[in-house]
Amino acid sequence: MLTIAGILAGAIWGGYLARRRKGNRLDIMQYAVSSGIAFGLLTFFVSLVFLRLAS
Description:
Oligomer: single chain
Number of strands: 0
Order of helices and strands: HH
Number of domains: 1
Number of helices: 2
Radius of gyration: 13 Å
Strand content: under 5%
Largest sheet: none
Low-confidence stretches: none
Helix content: over 70%
Distance between the termini: 19 Å
Structural class: mainly alpha
């Protein structure tokens, strides 16, 4: 569940960043997808670390 939230937050942040830099529609989509993947992987590994520390 946390990973899905990370993907969504990364996609929103990436789209906002591309729009702020005056990118076209494809730039916004590329930033959103790549940021979503990066944030999703980051939250996945962070949640794995927390689960290992908690058990």
